[in-house]
Specification:
The complex is a heterodimer of chains A (about 80) and B (about 180). Chain A is an alpha+beta fold and about 80 residues long. Chain A starts with a strand and ends with a helix. Chain A is built from 2 helices and 3 strands, in the order βαββα. In chain A, strands 1-3-2 form a 3-stranded antiparallel sheet, covered by helices on one side. Chain B has 2 helices and 11 strands, in the order H-E-E-H-E-E-E-E-E-E-E-E-E. Chain B is elongated and about 60 Å long. Classes of the chains: A alpha+beta (about 80), B mainly beta (about 180). At the A-B interface, helix 1 and strand 2 of A face strand 4 of B.
Chain lengths: ~80, ~180
């Protein structure tokens, strides 16, 4: 499985809406999305690093297939404009 | 004639009036701290252990109190913790977590505890209730050799695309018999 991680989300996204948008936009055996909030940074601007080098406050997007460069750009746009 | 392998501690007769040097030294570079007598459940006998060695392995605790959410219908890690190398013995693995669907359209919510990729506890909460519910469980495991072990609390939506939440996830690893 391929995981794409976006840091510093700050506010809990509407995961089901995001799931539908990604599923309709990128055809790479999309699996789902997860959001991890940071218990320490309740106001956003998370500065706490996970063991994997990302911030506690992050969004993870899962696909069974690896995204192409253009598909990754599409995903970046969806996350940016969520 | 005095046995120079003995500790000099009164009442240190373990087996046949002697204890071996190997039984005393549990690390290659032993700390110069106090020794304590512990019960070796694997070999069913008492052994001497360095207090600092016991202290580092008796109790491990991790928590992730924040809310995490997922639309995945496959398992996602909430906590993944790998212990330092632990001696052979009996250990108990405990977990606690609270789960709920994200909104009124949510699906069932699942949570489980696995140790070294083996599932020992599992719970599913019904989608008809929109309220956090606690989930907890434990498992006692005997390890016959020393080594590290990985405990995970994982969660999953009952239906792909439907979101669930998990919060206040905690795990504890206890040594319950040397």
């Amino acid at each position: 499985m391929y995981t794409y991680i976006y840091d510093n989300i700050s506010t809990t996204p509407n995961l089901e809406s995001l799931h539908t948008t990604i599923n309709n936009s990128i055809n790479k055996e999309f699996v789902g999305v997860s959001y991890n909030g940071c218990n320490h940074c309740q106001e956003g601007g998370c500065v706490h690093l996970c063991a994997n080098g990302h911030y506690h406050d992050n969004l993870q997007i899962y696909f069974n297939l690896e995204l192409s460069t253009s598909e990754k750009t599409t995903l970046d746009g969806i996350i940016e404009n969520r | 004639m005095a046995d120079d392998r003995r500790t000099g501690i009164t009442g240190d007769q373990i087996e046949d009036n002697t204890i071996s040097k190997d039984e005393l030294i549990v690390v290659n570079d032993p700390p110069s701290d106090k020794m304590v007598l512990g019960w070796d459940a694997v070999n069913a006998k008492f052994k001497w252990y360095y207090a600092s060695d016991l202290a580092t392995r008796l109790d491990h605790y991790q928590e992730d109190e924040g809310v995490s959410s997922t639309t995945l219908a496959t398992w996602v890690d909430k906590i993944s913790y790998t212990t330092p190398s632990m001696l052979a013995g009996h250990y108990e693995f405990w977990y606690y977590a609270e789960i709920n669907k994200t909104n009124n359209q949510g699906a069932n919510q699942k949570v489980r505890m696995i140790v070294d990729d083996v599932e020992y506890c599992y719970n599913v909460a019904d989608a008809n209730v929109n309220e956090y519910r606690s989930s907890k469980g434990f498992k006692r495991i005997q390890f016959t050799t020393a080594g590290t072990h990985t405990i995970k609390v994982q969660y999953s939506s009952g239906t792909a695309g439907k979101s669930m939440d998990i919060r206040r996830a905690r795990i504890r690893v206890l040594s319950v018999g040397i």
